[in-house]
Amino acid sequence: PLKVQYRKLKKEFRDSIRSAKSELVLKKLSNSNNIQKAAWQIINDLNPSKKRKNFKPFSFLTPEGVVEQDPRVVSEGFNEFFSRVGTRLNSLQPSSSVECYRSSEHVGPSLYLTPTDEFEVLKVIKSLRTSNSSGKDGISSKILKSCAELLAVPLAHLTNASFQTGVFPQPLKTAIVKPLFKNGNHQDPENYRPISILSTFSKVLERLFLIRLESFLELNKVVCHQQFCFRKGVSTTDAIFNFVSEIVSSLDDHRYTFALFLDQSKAFDVVPHNLLLEKVRQVGIRGK
């Protein structure tokens, strides 16, 4: 009887733990503004291999094969590596001419940056994720939100001046860059990716510009409807659903189905700036 009772209590205990965990997960999902992000956060928290590795002082292997441990030398080494990684990788790629993107035909209307006002600025500030992290100016989004009503008017003026002149304030371009370790040898800078912590004011200006850019691209059907990243209202979930639907449809029609997955290393770093500028000019982002 004692053994039976023990097994019964053990089962009840396990059921209680399982139920409590389920309730906690459901609570996190229901309280989150972004369910997909919250779901991935829960999955990563449950996976020990996904635990974020804390950054700590380490040695740095220079291109000459010398191991440096001086923090200043390590910082300069990372700065040198991150600032030149795009140029170095591009030198290994076949050269591309900007002429292949040029067209003599009219490519459509140009983007017009409509002026903003204090109410839109307030809305953007309130939409920022509340955080204590800050850029070089030391002002976090938490601080900015507490002063939003006082700063909305000058920020609106600054944004409109930037839109009119085509100049982004130079101080807002400065970022604190932190190397985040991925895997492999700790001394190899190739195994780190840079995380840039920008000024909170920079994020406000960027978001105000992004609102106008997204509206222009969607209105003029510039972005392909099969692009599932960097578009409002769609996500990787839609990409997976579309992919699975295509496979199921092909199999139902007794057709051969193939899939090709590409993952380019440092994709953003190797984009040639001259081609990018010509491409955005063609889609309507012109002027200053």
Automatic annotation (TrEMBL):
Pfam families: RVT_1 (PF00078). It comes from Homalodisca liturata. Residues 161-288 form the Reverse transcriptase domain. It comes from the Eukaryota. InterPro entries: DNA/RNA_pol_sf, RT_dom. GO terms for biological process: DNA biosynthetic process. PROSITE patterns: RT_POL (PS50878). PANTHER family: ENDO_EXONUCLEASE_PHOSPHATASE DOMAIN-CONTAINING PROTEIN (PTHR47510:SF3), REVERSE TRANSCRIPTASE DOMAIN-CONTAINING PROTEIN (PTHR47510). This is Reverse transcriptase domain-containing protein. Coiled coil: none annotated.
